[in-house]
Amino acid sequence: MTRAEAFWRGYRDCAPFIIIVVPYSMLFGVVARDAGLDILQTMSMSVLVIAGASQFTALALLQENAPVFIALLIALAVNLRMAMYSAALVPHVGHARLGVRALMAYLMVDQAFAVAVRTYEDNPTMPTAVKVAYYFGCMMLICPVWYAFTLIGAVVGRGLPASLSLDFAVPVCFIAMLAPLLRSLPHVVAALVSALAAIAFAWVPWSLGLPVAAGIAMVAGAQTELYLRRRAARVRP
Questions:
Q1: What is the pLDDT of residues 171-180, one digit of tens each?
Q2: How many other C-beta atoms are found inside a 10 Å radius of the C-beta of residue 37?
Q3: What is d(CA 174, CA 148) in angstroms, rounded to the nearest whole number?
Q4: Does residue 207 have a pLDDT over 80?
Q5: In angstroms, rounded to a whole number, what is the distance separating the alpha carbons of residues 142 and 158?
Q6: What single DSSP character describes residue 81?
Q7: Which residues of 179-209 are buried (b: 16+ CB within 10 A; e: fewer)?
Q8: Could you tell me how far CA 74 lies from the centroid of its own chain?
Q9: What angle do the packed helices 169-178 and 110-122 form, to 10 degrees?
Q10: Integer Cα distance of 99 and 154 in angstroms
Q11: Torsions phi, psi of 201, nearest 5?
């Protein structure tokens, strides 16, 4: 596979996510304007952060009059998943040039990571240059759509009728991304524990229960993996 072929394959593979990204990005534009941000502020946040979950979290906390430090802290905690994404991509694209890796880090979104890492694992012999081209193919479809429909939501959002709710896009987007990645028992345990812990700590003010739930889920997943390794070592002849 050439780099050009890999680029366009990534572009096509991420195409189904546009069904979710369009309402998701429009929803952010609408919510940001309702929260008091003007169009320039909305677009600046969207372009600089490119992380819908963190952006929604920060806006919600600011609307609740939480301190800016708390809003930034929780948004950072929500976005720490990108660090885990980066670690998962290191074996595949870690040998790319620093400037290329920096651009990949800036452009990283959940959808592109989910598609790219699964393709890399299914095709372990792909050269690094081809993997990089595939990744950028994924991103070149998602990011422009995110920017464009955030702007559309910011411009026309206040004119949308209240009955036209876009809230469905957020949970559907994450379900579509996460479900294919739950390939092992530790993954399933971590996902289940994170959901239960998030509900259990929902009473904590300013969404501080989210990082707590994330920490508990990571420990649960790691302990499950250690347990499976120990059990496999015991039964090994």
A1: 655 565 566 6
A2: 18
A3: 21
A4: no
A5: 24
A6: H
A7: eeeeeeebeebbbebbeebbeebeeeebbeb
A8: 15
A9: 20
A10: 32
A11: -105, 20
What CA–CA distance (Å, rounded) separates 47 from 146? 9
At residue 120, what is the residue type? Y
| 181: its two tokens | 């990645």
60 within 8 A of 71, measured Cβ to Cβ: no
CA 98 to chain centre: 22
Residue 162 neighbours by CB distance under 10 Å = 5
pLDDT tens for each residue of 15-59: 888 887 887 788 888 878 877 788 898 898 888 888 777 787 777
**CA dist., res. 198 & res. 35, Å (int):** 24
Distances in Å between the Cα of 90 and the Cα atoms of 51, 72, 87, 105, 149 are: 20, 27, 5, 11, 31
CA atoms of 92 and 97, how far apart (whole Å): 13
Q: Which residue has 């876009």 as its token pair?
A: 166
Q: CB 48: neighbour CB atoms within 10 A?
A: 10
| Weakest mean pLDDT among 6-10, 175-179, 195-199, 202-206 | 175-179
Among residues 4, 55, 11, which one has the least CA distance to residue 29?
55
DSSP 8-state symbol, 180: G
Nearest Cα residue to 29 out of 20, 42, 48, 44: 42
